[in-house]
Amino acid sequence: MKGFGPETFGTLNADEYDALHDPGTTDDSVALIDELAGDGAILELAIGTGRVALPLARRGRSIKGVEASPDMVAKLRDKPGGQDIPVLIGDMAEAAPDGPFDFAFLIFNTLFNLTTQDAQLRCFQTVANVLTPGGAFLIETFVPDLTEPRYSGAVVTKHVSSGSATLEVLDHDRAAQTLNFQRVRITEDGVRLIPLPMRYAWPAEIDLMAKLSGLDLEQRWGDWRRGAFTTGSKMHVSVYRKPQ
Questions:
Q1: pLDDT tens track for 134-183
Q2: CB of 43 within 8 A of CB of 64?
């Protein structure tokens, strides 16, 4: 989408992000990341408002973040403990805080917010460069299902309350693997348009990006509780390891 940069998502969504973007998996994701990271230094890409980073910090983890949106980081800073987490403002395809790190993660489909294959690959390479030998990179994304009605332009209801409703429609380009979302937020104050461009990638393509960056697939689950990844899985949690 024209004019949509790395920081635009936060500019459009920071004020209502926590209220409208809760995936319901925070406790499970924090527990698994805490276990997999061991005692090492942790990097979160797209740290946002700290949904996962703050619980990890409360567990005593050493964590740093990178985030493109100053508005999202401002929300993080307003929360208890948010001032204590170092965050680099920058594009996660290019920038990472000073490492090295033993574990990195990028979750909640945010890899797909990088809207070209080249940017997604550069993100993997950036992470690989700051991982210690033997370090790991965890990714969580949805698995594209082109049979879903929304991929054909159907309007989807995302949120309804007594005072508001959020509807979603998208333009899908199969050749480019792009989804140009338009969320329509209707409140008593009027109508607000919240665009979001994404480029989805299949698990096998993500594996190849990792391989080209020197990382090997170690594990893949179909959910945060280590459920099996099958042909019916709607999402995946994948762990890539840098050789010793």
A1: 999 999 999 999 999 888 889 999 999 999 999 999 999 999 999 999 99
A2: yes
